[in-house]
Recover the amino acids of this structure.
């Protein structure tokens, strides 16, 4: 079978892909099922996309699994999601290890129930030696929470003398974010036809290429990811410069490498 994978330039992969996995509830409703049914099927997509990213050689994949605001959903759904999460992590650790995938978590994990915290801690520990794909799960995450926490830590460090306020510059804040050791996403995908960021990596997405698709998350599979990457590769990332400047830079680089 022909795959879009063959059209991807493996030399120009996005180093970090971040995904807002949205549309599980609608997917279930279309089938006359409970919302949790959609979340269960969403896990299949997670497996597929993690596998595709590892196969391609993407460095970082961040998945927005649960937002700070999602705690306000009906208790039944929140509890169902927590159980699904713990169950999935427990079952997937051997596969993560087999594929050399290192798990990371960003978010306000203190909010998670104790059994979920324990399971996560264990999974982080068991995958900590892996050197392949970095899989970052955003759990109980919101950007405004993250930025507020970072500012509190900066204030505490200034107060204790660890940091001098005159030394605060554009490199300070990112070092205090939960993503301090993670490069900024280059491609951000949101499924389900919603065109918003929903409190996800507001600072880190400054220069990400945004890709929106109407496909609902439980239907999003490898070929959909390849399509997004091909689209990403067709874009000109200018970072505030002009097209002419970029062309000159590329020319200079290729002359230098001769
Ligand atoms: C995304 O699907 C998963 C989570 C937010 C946990 P939704 O549950 O938001 O599905 P829709 O948007 O209601 O269809
Ligand atoms: C964003 O989806 C959060 C996750 C995918 C985890 P939501 O479904 O919660 O976002 P809104 O409410 O439509 O903005
Ligand atoms: Mg949603």
């Amino acid at each position: 079978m022909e795959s879009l994978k063959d059209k991807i330039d493996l030399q120009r992969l996005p180093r970090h892909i971040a995904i807002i996995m949205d549309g599980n509830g609608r997917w279930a409703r279309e089938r006359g099922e409970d919302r949790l049914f959609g979340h269960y099927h969403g896990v299949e997509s997670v497996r597929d996309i993690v596998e595709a990213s590892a196969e391609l050689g993407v460095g970082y994949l961040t998945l927005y699994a649960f937002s700070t605001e999602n705690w306000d959903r009906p208790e039944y759904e929140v509890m169902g999601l927590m159980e699904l999460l713990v169950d999935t992590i427990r079952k997937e650790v051997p596969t993560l290890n087999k594929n050399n995938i290192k798990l990371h978590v960003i978010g306000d994990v203190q909010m998670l129930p104790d059994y979920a915290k324990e399971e996560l801690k264990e999974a982080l520990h068991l995958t900590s030696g892996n050197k392949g794909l970095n899989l970052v799960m955003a759990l109980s995450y919101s950007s405004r929470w993250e930025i507020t926490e970072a500012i509190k830590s900066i204030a505490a460090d200034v107060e204790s003398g660890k940091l001098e306020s005159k030394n605060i510059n554009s490199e300070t804040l990112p070092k205090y974010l939960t993503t301090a050791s993670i490069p900024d996403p280059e491609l951000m995908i949101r499924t389900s036809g919603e065109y918003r960021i929903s409190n996800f990596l507001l600072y880190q997405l400054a220069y990400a290429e945004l890709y929106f698709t109407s496909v609902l998350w439980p239907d999003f599979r490898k070929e959909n990811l390849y399509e997004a990457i091909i689209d990403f590769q067709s874009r000109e990332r200018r970072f505030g410069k002009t097209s002419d400047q970029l062309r000159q830079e590329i020319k200079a680089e290729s002359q230098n490498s001769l």
Summary: The chain has one domain: 12-142+184-256.
